[in-house]
Amino acid sequence: MKGTFFLKPLEFNIDIFGESFEQGQILKGNMALKKHGPVEGTLSNYGVTLAIGDNKKIKKKDVKAFITIDSKEFSQSEEIEDQQSLEFSFQLDANCPITTKASSLYLLCGPRDDLLSAGALELNIIPNRWLQEFIDTLVLFFRFKLKAIKSKKDLVEYKLQAPDTKEFGAIEQLLLSLRKDGDNIQVFYQFKVKKLCYEQEGVVAKDEIIKIEQSLTPKDYKQFGDSPNQNQMKLFLNEALEQIKRKTLL
Known about the structure:
Elements (H helix, E strand, L loop, with lengths): L1 E6 L2 E7 L4 E2 L3 E10 L10 E9 H5 L6 E8 L9 E9 L11 E9 L7 E4 L2 E2 L2 H14 L2 E8 L2 E7 L9 E11 L2 E16 L2 E15 L1 H4 E2 L3 E2 L1 H18 L3
Parallel strand pairs: 3-10
Antiparallel strand pairs: 1-2, 2-4, 4-7, 5-6, 5-8, 8-9, 11-12, 12-13, 13-14, 14-15, 16-17
């Protein structure tokens, strides 16, 4: 992934190894700085910043558009020469925000004290592979449909629609949130279900929220080194779905 930005009389060229990046991955790259004319200040005022960007605030040029996570600066406190380069490496958090329409992680190159004026390269951050394997197992074997995905605090939240079958007919919506906890995966189910209740006026249908939590160890989600353990993940998913079947009646 590459980007070129101009902040006259300076030119910034940034080059990152990769096009998309998983949560928890290491970002490595290089920034080249070129001078096309006289500039005030020293080299140490410039560098690369990893930040969370709010896309609406970025468009409005809000000074609170970016929240800094980490930064790498030139170490020299000397005048800027015609050309310099800076190698950088950032360790992404295991539960860092993924890229959505609302927000994303950015690499900013430019002055450290004015992030809005810096060149902003939006990063394509995708969920950790094993979180996605768990969702793929639900979609493939239980025929749930993925409707939306977003970041929520330190969770990745998936919005899913149950298949139109009798056994899952009571499920109106499933919000499935996942996060890494060390090597384990924490899973939070939030089912919106319709239940038949007996009241004075007769049988009425009411909405209810049912929450279930699970924790998967590495042997529960992978096997033979780096292959997904679909059979074990199916057991966890089936256990949660069976609880819903027992608690609903349609």
